[in-house]
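New to this. Please check this protein:
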Amino acid sequence: MRTDTPLEAPPETSLQTLAARRHVAVDRGRPVLDVVVPVHNEEADLERCVRRLHDHLARTFPYRFRITIADNASTDRTPDVAASLDDALEEVTAVRLEQKGRGRALRTVWSLSEAPVLAYMDVDLSTDLNALLPLVAPLISGHSDLAIGSRLARSSRVVRGPKREFISRAYNLILRSSLATRFSDAQCGFKAIRKDVAERLLPLVEDTGWFFDTEMLVLAERAGLRIHEVPVDWVDDPNSTVHIVLTATDDLKGVWRVGRALATGALPLDRVRRPFGDDPRDRELSGVPGGLARQLVGFCVVGALSTLVYLLLYTLFRLGTGPQVANAPALLLSALGNTAANRRLTFGVRGRDRAVRHQAQGLVVFGIGLALTSGSLAALDTAPGTPSHGTELAVLIAANLAATVLRFLLFRAWVFPSDSGATTDDNPRNTR
């Protein structure tokens, strides 16, 4: 039995992107899969569950494997039971940590493991073990980077009380609405990750407790890594010792922290990206510059929102002033927001470097838009009669459409050129 302390400082990582995915190289001298079972005061169930897991892997898994019991500072006989299993079963290893925290245990064991595929599951084995091979197979083949069991997939079969069902669905709804996640189940204790991905991703994950899973998945998804989901059969453990209220509070704090870091561009997610062309769908199209399609979509979304903001501001300012006076501040404020949003979301520029310069260049583009919209209003004033407010809005929308096309071309070629050397999330060679 080994006694290991948590990794206080994550190891240094290369600034280069991840290598292209490949099938895991099978080495007869080392296990292909390392399944971690984090435990805290589980003396009653540990031996039965580990032996059941060991028997299942021995019968069904086609490669060498290891089961690592990660004891999180247990105060009962759990360390003795773990040590006994370590001695009795060749494929079982016990590791003792002197501090609690599921995330801390996973970070420590996964960082020390030499297996190319790393997994973990809760000691109660609530998830049916028949899902284990489908969970890790896409990682072994090189198809995916991470894999998760999902209790919320349409074909999953789940037995649990209404309270836990409500909490689980509410939590995942919060993640979807606040962090724009697409994976369906962040909390299921049944996940796997490739070792090469873990080496880059784990240093970016701060949480050491129950939010560890969620943070890891959010960062992986934002970095463009492929997350494979497996529908599972899952039966709730009525004797679970998880403190629901405390865990939920810590999770919400984690959501706020991660959301703020993503919004400010504080996380170097480019280190975790796969190279452009790793997926066959990423191949360059003849005559289409790299990243153009994705940038067009992002620019259109930002432009649509900016237009709505502009029209609302114009309508508000128009209540007490004339059309020209209302148009200028409405366009200025919306232009500042448009430049900031396009800088981060469309062209993937992170941090504060050149932010002032980009806003200054954006104001030049704003000046062109102001000239187009103001000129349109001036032309409207020369028309006979008094134009209605609806007519003013229609003219402004048409002028803004013309200005939008020119704005995108100037943004792409002048404000945020791909060869400018700026630190971006969306370099065409890394865009997924």
